[in-house]
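[step 3/7] inverse_fold.run input=structure_tokens len=360
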């Protein structure tokens, strides 16, 4: 699934196996992240920089940290340096009142331990996972998520809207051998990169996109259904498209920035009801037929509707578009998932698929 982490390790010494996961820069010894406590505890004070500044892509430098493998290096922490760090944050859904929320993160980094000759690469390839988000200090927010093979607790303390300090405290567990566990703790300076996608094009500024030009017939090409439980991505289903496409009609509404969108024709998207891991969906199709109002969104660089406006009760977004390609995303809160052992899982199901224009 898109959130699954990709790792590769090369051991240069005998039985020394040390897979350190980190997010940051070059470094030496361990240090802390400043005001961020890294444990997700809520902060009740005032912030001088808005959480909205967290959205974007951050790259790291001047990092340091340490790690320990409980099986091969019990009781020993060794220094690491972190290179090629790139963390992206998007879709922040945060409450100033509760100081909590969620956000999607994508991670990329290269970690080396010079003492033991261990290299580890992690690259989510642009895929995103949903993290819980907590205000953990002044201008400091912690993003946390547990996986079947470990966890990440990422704290970013902002020094300005474009610079800050990042700390990642987490672990990596070998799913085939749970005793093979690596814990890590590192920090680094981070700088937010310029968002080129938000810069208006001279020929067609983003804020003046004519969405009506995307009316027509579209053919689904590929996609996936991700199932979440307690903030973790536990499984996925493959979409099983029919060969024919569906029709899409988009027209401007009376209200500025809103469009009337209709799906019609062959707009039923089937998928495999039981996946290879034995999980079963209560649904096995999504029906796009109907009409609703979509609003423009700079966050998605596209259009989106909410649950109430869409006849199917699903949240829908159209984003990452080109003249001949669009991506649709649904959030389905009513799809009951059952595990191979019969456990009923109350879950959130995220459906995403890419479509190309018929004839392109």
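[step 3/7] decode complete -> sequence:
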């Amino acid at each position: 699934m898109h959130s699954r982490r990709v790792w590769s390790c090369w051991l240069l010494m005998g039985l020394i196996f040390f897979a350190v996961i980190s997010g940051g820069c070059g470094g030496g010894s361990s240090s802390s992240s400043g005001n961020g406590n890294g444990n997700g505890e809520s902060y009740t004070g005032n912030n001088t920089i808005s959480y909205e500044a967290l959205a974007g892509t951050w790259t790291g430098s001047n990092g340091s940290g340490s790690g320990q493998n409980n099986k091969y290096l019990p009781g020993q922490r060794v220094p690491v340096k972190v290179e090629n760090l790139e963390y992206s944050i998007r879709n922040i859904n945060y409450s100033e009142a509760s100081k909590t929320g969620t956000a999607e993160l994508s991670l990329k980094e290269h970690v080396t331990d010079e003492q033991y000759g261990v290299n580890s690469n992690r690259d989510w390839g642009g895929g995103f996972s949903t993290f819980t988000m907590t205000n953990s200090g002044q201008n400091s927010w912690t993003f946390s998520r547990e996986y079947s093979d470990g966890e990440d607790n990422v704290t970013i303390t902002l020094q300005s809207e474009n610079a800050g300090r990042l700390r990642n405290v987490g672990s990596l567990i070998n799913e085939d051998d749970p005793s093979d566990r690596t814990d890590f703790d590192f920090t680094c300076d981070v700088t937010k990169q310029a968002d080129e996608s938000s810069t208006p094009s001279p020929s067609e500024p983003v804020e003046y996109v004519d969405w009506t030009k995307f009316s027509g017939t579209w053919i689904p090409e590929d996609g996936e259904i991700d199932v979440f439980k307690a903030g973790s991505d536990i499984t996925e289903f493959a979409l099983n498209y029919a060969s024919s496409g569906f029709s899409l009609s988009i027209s401007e509404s009376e209200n500025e920035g809103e469009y009337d969108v209709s799906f019609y024709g062959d707009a039923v998207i089937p998928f495999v009801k039981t996946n290879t891991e034995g999980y079963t969906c209560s649904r096995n199709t999504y029906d796009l037929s109907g009409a609703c109002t979509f609003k423009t969104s700079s966050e998605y660089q596209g259009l989106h509707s909410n649950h109430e406006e869409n006849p199917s009760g699903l949240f829908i977004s159209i984003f990452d578009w080109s003249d001949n390609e669009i991506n649709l995303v649904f959030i389905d809160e009513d799809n009951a998932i059952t595990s191979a052992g019969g456990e009923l899982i109350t879950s959130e199901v995220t459906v995403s698929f890419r479509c190309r224009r018929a004839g392109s």
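[step 4/7] annotate
Confidence is low (pLDDT under 50) at residues 1-24, 26-38, 197-207.
The longest strand covers residues 78-95.
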